[in-house]
Design goal:
Layout (H helix, E strand, L loop, with lengths): L2 E3 L4 H10 L3 E3 L14 E4 L9 E3 L3 E5 L4 H6 L7 H8 L4 H6 L2 H7 L7 H6 L3 E8 L5 E2 L4 E8 H4 E3 L2 E2 L5 E9 L5 E7 L10 E10 L2 E10 L9 H8 L5 H11 L10 H25 L7
Parallel strand pairs: 1-3, 2-3
Antiparallel strand pairs: 4-5, 5-11, 6-8, 6-11, 7-8, 9-10, 12-13, 13-14
Helix pairs in contact: 8-9, 9-10
Length: 294
């Protein structure tokens, strides 16, 4: 028998998580593909605390139950365009209307469409749990405590995260950084309703003709999204030219052959994408181009 719960607020949801084994969800687009006959589900879409999009001086703050379509249609916050590019390439309108950014993260698939962007933009996630002895958000007989983790630390492998059974992902925080150039690419069998064979996000910033920030993230070529800060630093410091950088990524990537593609194809596409992006970045940096994205 399937049991379902629909709490009215975050505190009630966290109490239910603490009381027993339940699976939290908001859109359910992945649960529908892998249903379980005997399970208990915690529906979160109606919780106002998890459905907000806002900004502080330092961060864009996106609630975990915000859908892709919410991100594409909201007008209050000037979100990074590269994130919106990724949202537009998620499946098709029915999925974008149901699927959530928090669900894409917690599903922890290396092929998750938004994950390379979130890795490249140094996103963090905020987790909440009910703590009878905590002091953050007062309740009648307890409170809610929070912890903040870099996304790269939160996702630990294929469909594995460090979320504890009594925790909920409540918010995604993206630092406000202005970039000279960003790029997102999703390579799949078709433009809609397809899981990526390869995905890539690059983000770079330059000042006074000098490359000052660089992030390169690859999806579907490892057990998690692949991003390597040592290679990025070597490029920034001038230790690696484009050829050396491509060689370093060739050694780093671990693509597999499966029903969607071959390891060789994935590797070739990734190396072409990073080569093309670095070529464009260096050309734009030398020309002194102005900021084009954020």
């Amino acid at each position: 028998m399937v049991n379902s719960y629909a709490p009215e607020n975050l505190s009630e949801a966290l109490r239910l998580l603490q009381a027993g084994k339940v699976t939290p969800y908001a859109g359910g687009t992945d649960i529908m593909v892998h249903p379980r006959a005997a399970a208990s589900y915690l529906f979160l879409r109606q919780l106002p605390e998890l459905g907000q999009i806002s900004a502080t001086e330092q961060f864009y703050v996106i609630g975990s139950t915000v859908t892709y379509q919410d991100l594409l249609t909201q007008t209050k916050v000037d979100l990074p365009d590269v994130l919106l590019q990724a949202c537009r390439k998620v499946a098709a309108p029915p999925i974008r209307n149901l699927g959530t950014l928090g669900g894409n993260i917690c599903n922890a698939s290396p092929a998750g469409d938004t994950l390379p962007v979130l890795y490249a933009l140094d996103a963090s996630v905020r987790l909440a749990r009910f703590e009878p002895a905590s002091v953050n958000v007062k309740d009648t007989d307890g409170s809610i405590s929070y912890r903040l983790l870099p996304l790269r630390q939160f996702i630990q492998g294929v469909r594995r995260t460090c979320r504890q059974p009594d925790e909920l992902l409540t918010e995604i925080l993206i630092p406000k950084v202005r970039y000279t150039l960003t790029e997102y690419e999703k390579i799949a069998a078709r433009k809609a309703q397809a899981i990526s064979k390869v995905s890539f996000c690059g983000a770079a910033a330059a000042e006074a003709g000098q490359l000052t920030r660089l992030a390169l993230a690859f999806g579907s070529v490892g057990v998690t999204v692949v991003r390597d800060s040592q290679i990025e630093t070597a490029i920034l410091n001038g230790d690696y030219d484009i050829a050396a950088a491509v060689k370093a990524y060739d050694q780093l990537l671990r693509p597999i052959t499966d029903q969607r593609s071959t390891a060789g194809y994935r590797r070739t596409v990734c190396l072409n994408l990073v080569r093309n992006f670095l070529t464009a970045v260096l050309a734009q940096t030398r020309s002194g181009a102005q900021v084009t994205d954020q």
